[in-house]
Amino acid sequence: MYCPFCRNPDSRVVDSRVSDDGSSIRRRRQCTECGRRFSTIETASLSVTKRSGVAEPFSRAKVINGVRKACQGRPVTDDDLAMLAQEVEETIRASGAAEIDANDVGLAILAPLQRLDQVAYLRFASVYQAFDSLEDFEKAIGELRDRPAP
Questions:
Q1: Distance set, CA 15 to CA 6, 10, 34, 45, 121 (Å)
Q2: Which of 24, 30, 26 has the alpha carbon at shortest distance from 40?
Q3: Which residues contact 110 (CB under 8 A, 6 or more apart)?
Q4: Are 1 and 38 in contact (CB under 8 A)?
Q5: Mind listing the pLDDT tens digit for each residue in 24-44?
Q6: Helical (H) or strand (E) element with 83
Q7: Distance CA 123, CA 141 (A)
Q8: What pLDDT, on a 0 to 100 scale, did the predictor assign at position 149?
Q9: Would you state the pLDDT for residue 35?
Q10: What is the pTM of this model?
Q11: How does the average pLDDT of the chain come out, rounded?
Q12: Which of 7, 40, 54, 116 matches a 20 to 30 Å C-alpha distance to 105?
């Protein structure tokens, strides 16, 4: 970590604190050269590997945009979508992996979306799981009916 004042590459940690949500660490540092203090925020990186093999950083916005299409015309608010994206990210981070397959992100979306809105869930699942017949929809609807309401 370079000092933002004198560009010295060496600093020492004076204080460390976990953020409120537990996803990052705030560190207070002091430059060993000029003695000035500065703060850094450290987070664990989470990469998503797409089908093409390209890895990119996890984005809650991409989760929200993908789910928003399935929720079009449904009584789902932006706050609901933000909470869903947060739950998906927490689920993925809880796995402990630094890199996750895009397919696993989709699987992590299914459960919270089902609790949020069953019609949106069917829309998302039909695209995500590539439904290609009425039987696929009937099977999914049957599974929804067999599960107890949340």
A1: 21, 16, 18, 22, 45
A2: 26
A3: 121, 124, 125, 128
A4: no
A5: 899 999 999 999 999 999 887
A6: helix 78-94
A7: 11
A8: 58
A9: 96
A10: 0.68
A11: 89
A12: 40
